[in-house]
Amino acid sequence: MTAAFSNEEMMTVAAARMLPDGAVCFVGIGLPSTAANLARLTHAPEAVLVYESGPIGARPPVLPLSIGDGILAETADTVVSTPEIFRYWLQAGRIDVGFLGAAQLDRFGNINTTVIGSYHNPKVRLPGAGGAPEISSSAREVLIVVSQSKRTFVERLDFITSAGFLNGGDERQKAGLPGKGPVAVITDLCILRPDRNTRELTVSHIHPGVTRETISANTGWAVRFASACEETAPPNAHELEVLRALKARTAAAHAEGEAA
Amino acid sequence: MAEWMKLKDAVSALVRDGDCVALEGFTHLIPFAAGHEIIRQKRRNLSLVRMTPDLIYDQLIGAGCAARLTFSWGGNPGVGSLHRFRDAVENGWPAGLEIDERSHCDLANAYVAGASNLPFAVFRGYAGSDLPNVNPRIRTIECPFTGERLAAVPAVRPDVTVIHAQRADFKGNVLLWGILGVQKEAALAAKRVIVTVEERVNTLQAPPNACVLPSWVVGAVCVVPHGATPSYAHGYYERDNRFYRAWDAISRNRTSFTQWLERFIYETDDFSDFLALLSKSQDKAAAQ
Question: Given an 8 Å threshold on Cβ–Cβ distance, is A114 in contact with B131?
């Protein structure tokens, strides 16, 4: 028997499941942080969460609102400076999994978080790169978690902030990026994985209750489905309970902080 | 040796029109009091450097202090856009803003190069990214030993760096802890350094490997309690998330921002005056 769940809960649970126990994970704020902490509180208690603000091995009891919340420092094995995080830990190859979000991505898992329109005369100025270009290149593997829509999944990016597979095939390798690149994109509708040869993101799992038509209608390119496309296992009672408790604790803690 | 000064006097003496200025603090210990004082003293034509512009630079940009911005992530953390930054980049209001855009890894390394008195930083980065195509300062260099292509960027060398820390002793030795970001590097990369602190103590009682800036690398040190509000000071006060959310509406249009600037910055004498007004207005908002 499975409980009722939202698409967003399915996305977070599916993303959390991708993180192996014991993995050293460089965590972006927002959805990636929620998924990584859910993993740590369920099947991956030994996952090491690294945040770009400096905490290594953070175990926050509630989700941080910003990338540098005090709770990350207080619960970490150690807190190092930001240059050290990027030099000794990320660049040196000590990160197994980079967990990223995206404003826009294309069929080869390239990410845009910089501008919509032209760079020098942008229609929309997005926040910019942050740590993503080097996380996406130096982490051994990259997981991307993002809500799916035609606005997000676009045929052509106006700007590549962080490289996925560039134009596909072996272009990423040729460009000299050390890590493997995106191994999965987890959305509120499905899971996509790169095709072995072309590296084009291909639907491998469809979330329960979602149709192929819905996925196609929310993708800006003619999305392909793997021949062995499966249904994603729905969140189990334990996953939902832990996720909901985490969110409730987070809401209560931040409300309390504001009343003080 | 650091000189104990009032913040007003420190900004007046050490921050000049046209300077390259870095106010650092990675979500934690953001020197808001100093930012406000720079706005109050109407500094102009500044080249601002900061990894995460945050609300502090949204305020400086909207107030017309900046001509140029070097940055790596320009959002309102956990909330959304920096509207004043976007208005400057998208529409040139209140003036055009030249941008020098990098990644976090780049700027962190560029501060290290500045602190090390090196001309440039070298790191493994930007492969496959379009950023080097739009920013001529991002270049590549070949490793003379292995031939590997690596990213190279000029060192960050601010005229003035401003940071906020938890404590300083009477001599002006500064102690900070918690999330350290790039503050130490930013201070050591600069020609002049202003530090605001929560409190002045007799002795720092810092363990041997603590992050201490010795008095003789600091120009001015100023006591400004709650000087990092609405960001936080580990061990002293929490981040004011309510303000970060409220900023979205305040900064969204030019009129409400200009009114805020007038009332909260220009019409207040100093940061304690600002804090008193802020607390009064937040109480009023909570009662509604």
Answer: yes
> Between residues 98 and 137 of chain B, which touch chain A (CB distance below 8 Å)?
101-105, 108-109, 111-112, 123-131, 134
What pTM did the predictor assign?
0.96
* A91 contacts A139 by C-beta, under 8 angstroms: no
Q: What is the DSSP letter of A233?
A: P
Contact A181, A194 (CB under 8 A): yes
Query: pLDDT confidence of A29, banded at 50, 70, 90?
Result: confident
Q: Both tokens of residue B281?
A: 């207005």
Question: What are the structural domains of chain B?
Answer: 3-102+157-279 (3.40.1080.10)
pLDDT digits (tens, 9 = 90+) for A130-170: 999 999 999 999 999 999 999 999 999 999 999 999 999 99
Q: Which of B202, B205, B237, B198 is nearest to B221 (CA)?
A: B198
Distances (CA, A) of B241 to A69, A128, B60, B250: 11, 22, 20, 14
User: Taking all residues of chain B, what is their mean pLDDT, rounded to a whole number?
Assistant: 97
pLDDT value for A59: 97
B117 to chain A, minimum CA–CA distance in Å?
Answer: 16
Q: Identify whether A257 is part of a domain.
A: no
Give domain status of residue A226, yes or no: yes
Count how many domains chain A has.
1
Contacts of A179 (CB under 8 A, 6+ apart): A98, A136, A137, A138, A139, A140, A141, A142
CATH number at residue A167: 3.40.1080.10
- Whether residue A39 contacts residue A97, with contact meaning beta carbons closer than 8 Å, is answered with no
The reported pLDDT for the residue numbered B78 is 85
Q: Residue window 7-66, chain B: list those with CB within 8 Å of chain A.
A: 26-28, 51
CA separation for the pair B78, A67 (Å, rounded): 9
Rounded Cα distance between A233 and A220, Å, is: 26
Measured CA to CA, the distance from residue B223 to residue B209 in angstroms comes to 24
